[in-house]
Amino acid sequence: MVLQRIFRVVIMGPPGSGKGTVSGRVVKRFGLTHLSSGDLLRANIKAQTELGLLMKSCIDQGQLVPDDVISRLILTEMRSIEQSSWLLDGFPRTVTQAETLDGVCSVDTVINVDVPFQTIKQRLTSRWLHLPSGRVYNIDFNPPKISGLDDVTGEPLIQRDDDTPETITRRLKSYENQTQPVLEYYRSKGMLETFSGTETNKIWPHIQAFLSKKLFPQNDKVVGKA
Ligand code: G5P
Ligand code: MG
User: Which residue's CA lies nearest to atom 25 of ligand 1?
Assistant: First the structure.
């Protein structure tokens, strides 16, 4: 199925709510290009760029990096995919970032993955990551086929430095204080679609159905006529 125009989707939710996991499924099912602010920052840290070195302590302490730094990074990356439909994960995280994004493009819809904090705390300490691709695993939920290795490349998996219990608590606090107002920002514009639950496998069918309708409204009409 080919999209009839370019779609721009933002995915939001607390740390560990499953944004990366859901994004992987959206990419596979709908072919959107995934752009993750956290993956971009971690790639900069791994490559030891000036920006990566500057931002590492901020991220490891569970604080947000400054708005101007992350906005510049994301907007530069967005320019290279402006002819594609995309899914933006982890940006915007403050109202200032949301206003910056509004200044450069119009977003079609905002998906909010709403998972209780208690569920999240248990998940994040057992997360494993393939750094080059951003593929995520969890020893309870979706373990790799071979322990410690990525299913696709066979390369080693790592644990994120910010997945310690204390840092997770700080990340959830900063989500409450700085990112929840962004949900209100999009809700007031009528753009927010919230999907609540404690299991990605139960939330995903609803997101999939919503995006199918949004991205392929013509199919709905065909079904309606039949
Ligand atoms: P990130 O990288 O954007 P967060 O904190 O927003 O980080 P995170 O931790 O990447 O979000 P996620 O993507 O929402 O979480 O969740 P995930 O990785 O898919 O799933 C979490 C774990 O749960 C995985 O192990 C997965 O397998 C498992 N899982 C999924 N579903 C289920 C389920 O149903 N059951 C179970 N049992 N497990 C499941 O940002 C990192 C940092 O970068 C900076 C900040 O410092 C931030 O803290 N940053 C920004 N700073 C300022 N502005 C921005 N815009 C920034 N963006 C990033
Ligand atoms: Mg993520």
Answer: 127
DSSP character string of 133-148 = TTEEEETTTB--SSTT
**Edge-first strand listing for the sheet containing 86-89:** 33-36, 86-89, 8-12, 109-114, 192-196
Q: Which atom of ligand 1 is nearest to the CA of 122?
A: 37
Q: 28, 9, 22, 13: which is closest to 152 by C-alpha?
A: 28
Q: Looking at the predicted structure, is the pLDDT value of residue 225 above 50?
A: no
H/E stretch holding 161: none
Q: Is 137 annotated as a binding residue?
A: yes
Catalytic, 171? Answer: yes
**pTM of the model as a whole:** 0.93
Please state the atom number of ligand 1 nearest to the C-alpha of residue 74.
55
What's the CA gap between 191 and 188, in Å, rounded? 8
Please confirm, yes or no, whether 160 is among the known catalytic residues.
yes
- Indicate the pairing of strand 86-89 with strand 109-114: unpaired
Catalytic annotation present for 225: no
Q: ipTM of the assembly?
A: 0.98
Is 37 annotated in a binding site? The answer is yes
Strands 192-196 and 86-89, sheet pairing: unpaired
